[in-house]
Each structure stands twice: as structure tokens, then as C-alpha cells.
Specification:
Number of domains: 2
Shape: extended
Helix content: 40-55%
Order of helices and strands: EEEHEHHEHHEH
Structural class: alpha+beta
Number of helices: 6
Amino acid sequence: MALNAKATQEFIPIKEVRDGIVVLKNDELRAIVLANSVNLSLKSADEQQATIMQFQNFLNTLDFSIQISIQSRRLDIRPYILLLENRIKVQNEPLLKLQTREYIGFIKNFTDTVAIMTKNFFIVIPYTHTPLKSDSGILDKIFSRKNKTEIKMAEKVAFEEKRSQLEERVAVIQQGLSRCGINSAQLGTEEVVEVFYKVFNPGEIEGKIKLE
């Protein structure tokens, strides 16, 4: 018996990404903040304890949930290798060409032996709008009288109101991270799309770079 194939989008609860905000199919909103890492091993014992306590206090002050996601990927060195090979073509000094070729060989052997990983730290900030209970019959009558333009305008206003509330949460998160010595930035639309693209297509980007 043949099974009906379903598109990947049917299994993803994302309706759209608008102005850097992820809109889910249930109309909940999500913002994504990229944060840098802090190397505690370079700090003294007192500094480590102070950083941990500051981060703990930051989490305890939140009155909404957040999700911390870490993406760990093997570093693709091929763009760097391609850059070096292009430099060999324009070098006129034979010794520099030889040294560059040897350096390329060293980099290739080293990365084949040791898996060099890159890590990205994301904080997902949610906002769920809970509508007030009212007479659904009255609402149906009101909306039935509106044309499509009015409905779209009402949806736009509702989105802006929810986004305003979400942006306030984003500001709280970034201020709290800053007090912990962590720099952060909210992702825009293209950056959010790229994050999800890499999640669902882990091998496609690596395949785009070809070396001669």
C-alpha cells in the first residue's frame, strides 16, 4: 500500500517569519537572540562564581519561559583553503608558493585528524497571546460584516501589538545577558531563515563549495 508523501512544511509548526519574528501556526510568536560565549576557564575562581551567580539571578528574575539552543557543527575549512589556493596563483615568489602549499597540506591533515567544531548559542523567547473570553456569536457577527481589507488591517494591528510585547521581553533578556558579560543580538528575518535552513538541510551548504 503506497503512503501519501507529505511536504516537510506540514511537520514544521512555523507559518511565516515576519520582520525577524517567527509566527507559529497557532499564532504564537518567537524571537531568536544570538549570544556569544564566555570562557570561564580564563577567569579566576571568584570571577567564575560571580558570573554563575549573576546568571542564576538573571534567570530567577524572569517571569516567562525561554529556550536555550546550542548548534554545534563541524567547521568547514574549504572556503579558507580556496582562499589560500587563489593566493598561490597570484604569488610570484617560488618560496612563498611552496610554503603556502605546505601550509594548506598541514591544515587539511590537521582538520582530518581533529574535528574542529563551531558552536552558536541561541535564546528563543516566546510570546503567547491569551484573548479575553467573550460572546463568540457577537464576534462572528462583527467579523462577518468586515471586508478582507479590514480583516487584514485588524490582523496587522494585532501582530504589531503582540510584537511590541515580545520586543519588551527581548530587551529584558539582552539586558540580563549584558549584566553577565554576554553580548547578544536579535536575529533578523534572513538570519532566522538561515538558522532553520541549516537545521533542516545540514549537508546541503557544505556541498556548495567545490575545490579544484
